[in-house]
Write a structure and sequence with these properties.
Elements (H helix, E strand, L loop, with lengths): L6 H18 L3 H7 L4 H9 L18 H14 L1 H20 L2 H12 L5 E4 L15 E5 L2 E12 L6 E7 L9 E7 L5 E6 L10 E12 L3 E2 L5 H37 L1 E2 L2 E2 L4 H29 L6 H26 L10 H8 L9 H19 L1
Parallel strand pairs: 1-4
Antiparallel strand pairs: 2-3, 3-7, 4-5, 5-8, 6-7, 9-10
Length: 385
């Protein structure tokens, strides 16, 4: 379908596609096998100015929005979800500063982020606090002109590789979620270290580590917004980033679809290519419909966010849920179409299937997203009365 992209959006798409095809595809299997962080590809992405997309011009960016991020993420995800997760998580970690950071914080951090000189990570999840943000145990105590952080964050994407971390910690536990605050912590700060590198089922080119804070002292001015805003910062950040996860779903589904189609043309059974069999055609037809529907929803929600809409929780949750459920189904079906070959690491379909599963889990499980949608519908029905 023609989504009536502007010349700039087409340029972003083509640039991301070129990087994916020329730089990512040749090494994706090796990156997955070795669990190797894709630094060389990140450098290429930085040189191509794709990190500048979501940064305002006054800080070295090109002032583009959610749709442009989705377009770039989709193309990278077609090649490797591990690499695209590294890129997308950088935007996720930057959103707190973009949305609620002070002018001084933006001037200090955003130019380096735009240039790809420093990666960012977002640290919310803990062993007992993921969907339940009020369960955060990491604390931040103000002492003079410094906050002292103590606690552990778990499963943090870009952990150990990123230079800048936006961290949610409790400044007043008695207030529950309203007692959380957001902070900027730089790698190398005394008292800030990293735990083990996780060994994951998928997205193995993306690094996931624990963050450990032991009497970690950061300047008072590193708080984002003010005390008690941490929950709002986190939720608004996720509202803005979930379309990117939806775009990852569209991308990996498209990649799996193309792999399955190419295989079905080449694989012969009973004297005919298997794509000529109605059973295979119907599976491919369903896949095609699902991908187009997912892309339409993701792009539509991204445009809605870019329009300046304030209430976007329901819509971003819908985009995330639908597109990532599609990604899981499509990648499984792609493996099925390819049969035994699809199960082998010689082909990329099995990796895409392993990678796709995380999309239904991170940045809010799809079950939690359905709660978000349901609660929004209740509020809308009450207003309607």
């Amino acid at each position: 379908m023609d989504y009536f992209l502007t010349e700039e959006q087409i340029m972003i798409r083509d640039l991301a596609r070129q990087i994916a095809e020329e730089k990512i595809v040749p090494v994706r299997a090796e990156l997955d096998e070795k669990e190797e962080f894709p630094w060389e590809i990140i450098k290429v992405i930085a040189q191509s100015d794709l990190f500048r997309i979501f940064i305002p011009e006054e800080y070295g960016g090109i002032s583009k929005g959610s749709l442009e991020i989705c377009i770039a993420v989709e193309e990278l995800s077609k090649a490797c979800l591990g690499v695209s997760t590294t890129y997308a998580a950088n935007a996720l970690g930057t959103y707190p500063v973009l949305l609620y950071g002070s002018e001084e914080q933006k001037k200090k951090y955003l130019p380096d982020i735009a240039g790809g000189k420093r990666l960012v990570a977002f640290a919310l999840t803990e062993a007992n606090a993921g969907s339940d943000a009020a369960g955060i145990q990491t604390t931040a105590r103000l002492e003079g002109n410094e906050y002292i952080l103590n606690g552990t964050k778990q499963w943090i994407t870009n952990g150990g590789e990123a230079e800048i971390y936006t961290v949610i910690a409790m400044t007043d536990r008695s207030k529950g979620a309203r007692g959380a605050s957001a902070f900027i912590v730089e790698k190398g700060t005394p008292g800030f270290s990293f735990g083990k590198k996780e060994n994951k089922m998928g997205i193995r080119a993306s690094t996931t580590r624990e963050l450990i804070f032991q009497d970690c002292r950061i300047p008072k001015e590193n708080i984002i917004g003010r005390e008690g805003m941490g929950f709002i910062v986190a939720m608004k950040t996720l509202d803005n980033s979930r379309t990117g996860v939806g775009a990852q779903g569209v991308g990996v589904a498209q990649g799996a679809f193309e792999t399955a189609v190419n295989f079905a043309r080449e694989r012969h059974q009973f004297g005919h290519p298997i794509i000529s069999f109605q059973a295979v055609q119907h599976m491919l037809a369903d896949i095609s419909i699902q991908i187009e529907a997912a892309r339409s929803l993701v792009y539509s929600v991204a445009r809605y966010i870019d329009s300046g809409a304030k209430a976007i929780s329901k819509e971003s949750a819908m985009a995330k849920v639908f597109a990532t459920d599609v990604a899981m189904k499509v990648t499984v079906d792609a493996v099925q179409i390819m049969g035994g070959a699809g199960y082998m690491r010689e082909y990329p379909a099995e990796k895409m299937m392993r990678d796709a599963k995380i999309l239904q889990i991170y940045e809010g499980t799809n079950q939690i997203q359905r709660n978000v949608i349901g609660q929004a519908l209740i509020k809308e029905s009450v207003k309607g009365k």
